[in-house]
Protein 1
Amino acid sequence: MNHFTFGIDALSSIDESTVRTITARLEEGRVAYLSNMAFSLNKNETQFLSPNSIDNKSKNISYHPLTQQVRGCEHLSAEQRALLQSFMQRYYDYAKDLIQALLPSYVDSLEVGRTSYRPVEIKGRPSSYRKDDTLLHVDAFPSMPVQGRRILRVFCNVNPHGQPRVWNLGEPFANVVDRFLPTLAAPNPIIAPLLKTLTITKGLRTPYDHYMLQLHNAMKADSAYQADVAKMQMPFPPETTWIVFTDKTSHAALTGQYLLEQTFYLPTSAMQDPQLAPLHILETKLGRSLTGRSG
Ligand code: SIN
Ligand code: FE
């Protein structure tokens, strides 16, 4: 146990008070580390343990549990794509069952997001600095406004060669905000409706989304910050699972290959303590409301 992570050893020992503690720690910004829980691949799925599973224009394979569409593997046969679809659906079911066991108070309010499979080594992968997840950041996406909702993600390292997924975990969200918020430009009210009309964003980019995106970019752009900020390296070995609110916890993925990830969105009103939401923290610092939604 440290300031960055906490362990969960067995689902069988989880009672009501453990649930409250797990929920509180996650909402504070720690990573829940499940060192002996993993998603296992079926024999016929191990063929996807190759970077050739993705087509050359994608960086991962994505799946949406609601539409059951897989993307990023158009070069595979129909049969292989069907198998990938069931593989991703199985991971979604695994992630959902974990949330049900560990965070039952969220279940009725959670919205399902993308499932992602990442078969490419992250270290040395070419990308622009804004897309470079080897730099510390909090998650915020240009095309996907969350309008205040939390981003909750379930990761599992399925590397078959013993290779860990190594993360850095950075300083608490309030420190990130204190450091970068004074440098960020206020949103321009003309832009957000335009981005929505042009369907550049899926929905309206609220002032909250604007600030979170600016924060994400400013962290990644500041190389002195990246070098000097207090951080802890955390290796997640194969066959381990971890859960984290990636919109609040500063993180970077340094090395690793073969990762599964499921995204969920949670309205802040469904949190055990909504005051711990990035939305609340930013609104308090700025002294204004950042979203029209009550969530
Ligand atoms: C990220 O969310 O920044 C990347 C996590 C990973 O790929 O390990
Ligand atoms: Fe991230």
Protein 2
Amino acid sequence: MISVPTFSEVLLGTLRGAERVAILTGAGASKESGIPTFRDADDALWGRYDVRDLATPEAFGRNPKLVWDWYEARRRAAAGVAPNAGHAAIARLEEKILEVTVITQNVDGLHQRAGSTRVIELHGSLFRVRCSRCDRVFADWSGRGPHVPPRCACRGLLRPDVVWFGEMLSIEAIQSARRAAGRADALLVVGTSAVVQPAASVPLEAMRAGAYVLEINAEPTPLTGVVNESVIGRSGDVLPALWRAAWGE
Ligand code: BV8
Ligand code: ZN
């Protein structure tokens, strides 16, 4: 019997009266679409590698083809799945709330495919590549010759346009995320282990600025004891339930 999550009247009232809502999402928000989270070591294809080892500039420097192939596999996987009910509920917030900003750590593009129109990709995207030499960004890199990884016209190696461990996030992305979290009436934190910085500080900045913060996660995290409200459950169940509790069907 799946227990139906309950939400406080404070939360529901805040959402119904909100002008601005931000949603910080992590890998847990895409899990029900069939994309393994970073903590799921059961990923048969790549389980033998530790993500933290592959998602680094050093790994790419050591073995560009291995890292490129891993991201190509992840890109194909992301392109092959559908957004889930949690992504859809987040997109539907735009029907009720003036300004909805998704701040995602995910690189799978599922929020945009679900219909969210304002998405800050803190950690980049699987669907863009960047020249590791001249920084030119490509949305289409087909037909760039037989090399793996392909090369830019400047002969630089193309790399995924994602932020690796040890790399700076784009100043524009982190500043717009902080601005959205600082102005939000409510911040929903969905499916993140809240460990990786600086993303994990966004909820704290929202709380300091007076936002009502709700965490939705399959299990407790370091944020659980800090936020205003926490619901343990799957985002694909909890987010549609939150929508129904706030605005009916
Ligand atoms: C930087 C893109 C510095 C690539 C990613 C202290 C010690 C050591 C290192 C550091 C430190 N402090 C800071 C650092 C550096 C590091 C960091 O934070 N490390 C952590 C491990 C401590 N940070 C960085 O390197 C950042 N850059 O700090 O630069 C700098 C300064 C000056 C000059 C130069 C550099 C860059 C971080 C970005 C790395 N890139 N992704 C790619 O995708 O391949 S991070 C990647 O991992 C994700 O994007 C995400 O951010 C993180 C994984 O976290 P989650 O998304 O939360 O996923 P996870 O699997 O962990 O958890 C899933 C959650 O979902 C769980 O809680 C689970 O319960 C829940 N869940 C599961 N199913 C469901 C669910 N919830 C709801 N419903 C479900 N169905
Ligand atoms: Zn180049």
Protein 3
Amino acid sequence: MDGPGSWAVVPHFSMPKATPSQSARLVRRVKISAIGCYVPPKKLTNADLEKMVDTNDDWIFARTGIRTRHIVEPGVATSDLSVEAAKLVLEQRNLKGSDIDTIIVCTVTPDMMFPSTACLVQDRLGATGAWGFDLIAACSGTVYGLTTGAQMIASGAQERVLVIGADTMSKIVDYQDRATCVLFGDAAGAVLLEPSEDPDLGLLDYINEVDGSGGHMLYMPAGGSRLPASPETLAARMHYVHQDGGQVFKYAVRKMSEVCVEILRRNGFTPEDVDILLLHQANGRIISAVADKLGMPENKAINIIEEYGNTTGATIPLAAREVLNNGRLKKGDLVVMCAVGAGLTAGAALWRWAY
Ligand code: UT7
């Protein structure tokens, strides 16, 4: 058996479009070794939203599956949630900040445009040897972050990569727009990647995709170099999430089903082989529809949206934490993570769970 940090020929670890010589190159298997999540205590219920916009609990629950979301107090930022989640991961593995090589914060709500949230987190964790960066892929961010971090370890360049999916969506949601404000919440999920001592456990494969032609379906129009903040952009409420919900819904169901089927097919599995399906939590109806298209029992597709809403970068770590805590996710389970988000972005990662 290979020890941590050792090298092994793992031809199965395939990159999309890899040539035979590329996929047979020397790589290390990479595992998730810890997950820690932080959810702010303050709840925003459907009843609270009824007082803010023309909506009601029946509509929200029937159309989305959401009853509550957690949101931060004024003054709390994405790095604050990230640091709390990261501390839990370090505690679980009995590590210090200085044991981390790389920090990737997957977010669309950085504390500020620069420095990156990863730099702020690095400082507060005392991760003195780490480098890091923010990764913008919206709801697919954590799948992109995990697969990016895994490559760093697989190549032998790094030993421990901390991937944090974190968002304070309450800071960019328009609480006058009933079509979006009912959907989102705030949270952070930190995931530690390390070399796998067992070559059969860890990340087996991934697929990441971008279709920029759908960028207009879900975006924040102002605040970047195209439309810097101005009195006009503020007056036009352009610093908030704008979404064509129906189009995103259809894309999410189609694309998540497609990438799940493809990643299973090319690794010789069928949906029946999957123990746990960790889908991005955007809408309970999307989760049910994807499970249905895959012909999977709905209870394998983890659904925690009722309590948290859509927390963008944090949804998949939160869902993983739920099944780890209730004992449903066990070592050796076949797990698919899959997400779709603004961009449009999509990603799937196939794991043999390692702890
Ligand atoms: O994580 C990023 C990816 N994002 C997503 O995956 C979100 C995908 N989209 C969705 O989840 C759904 O499209 C929504 C939940 C956003 C909307 O649900 P829908 O079933 O697609 O509703 P709709 O937009 O077709 O609207 C149906 C009706 C409309 O009224 P009319 O035009 O039929 O009179 C809306 O104005 O529901 C109305 N409506 C609401 N009514 C009460 C929209 N939002 C609300 C609301 N409360 N909050």
